[in-house]
Amino acid sequence: MKQFPREAVSRVRVLVVGDIMLDRYWFGEVERISPEAPVPVVHVGRCEDRLGGAANVARNAAALGARVTLAGIVGRDEPGREVHAMLRDAGIHPELVDDDESHPTTLKMRVLGRQQQMVRVDFEGRPSSSCVQSLTDRVMPLMGHHDVVVLSDYDKGALAQVASLINKAREIGVPALVDPKGLDYTRYRGASLVTPNRSEMQQAVGHWLDESDLNARAQQLREQLGLEALLVTRSEQGMTLFMNQERHHVDAQAHEVFDVSGAGDTVLATLAVVRGAGGSWIEAMRWANRAGGIVVGKLGTSTVTAEELE
């Protein structure tokens, strides 16, 4: 594989739009069972916050050396203030909508005992239509000032107008990469690349019988949506890229899988920065596969640097 295009990546301007989350981890030790109920008691000794969702995609792109802008919706609350502070520390330019005082920042709180996740508690709510419109209005003029647009859909509501964003990106000639959610892929029509994982692909096209059947279903979906490329991430089976009359596959590179949370964000960010730097979809897939293999060996939502890739 060629050297990672670090110098070219440093000039890439990435616009990430999507569902922003804060991942909060409480680490502790488990030494007894509660007398109140048959559950373990976790004595918390350390707390850590990390950017999640679209914010984790942005953090990964920045860690690889790109210049990153993040647009999304947060609340006027403590997690929202923490997101702002962490973006600033990561060197990511924020374009955040917080118009609705009643809307909470999406927070996923995980309690871990001896590195084992015991429970996850989610705080979230769907944004109002006015917040979504404000986000769309803010993003539209930003697209022309970036080399690539990443749309990170976690089905939390920020990308309710994703079709309009894709149409705008296509109109001005900026590649749009989408991490999809849900069953209705028609909303991603016209994107440059869509990156479903294995489960999401099965929801979209049904269960395939073999590789030939997968190829037929994938190419049909790609043609129906007018995509340049469709990349299916397949966990331990690696990644498969479908383009016009072409199929390319790379095997998984993970040596040890410790935590897969956030791995898709790392893959998406790597695809974006390599493509934005002038790499082909095939080159982008190979670097993304390497990045994904590294990040699953880390705990929680994490990043991969250019040095690690090399």
TrEMBL record:
Keyword Magnesium recorded: no
Domain Carbohydrate kinase PfkB residue range list: 14-303
Keyword Transferase: yes
Name the UniProt record assigns to this protein: D-glycero-beta-D-manno-heptose-7-phosphate kinase
Source superkingdom: Bacteria
A single MF term (Gene Ontology): kinase activity
Keywords assigned by UniProt, alphabetized: Kinase, Transferase
Protein source organism: Orrella daihaiensis
Transmembrane segments annotated in the record for this chain: none
PANTHER family on file: BIFUNCTIONAL PROTEIN HLDE
Cited SUPFAM superfamilies: Ribokinase-like (SSF53613)
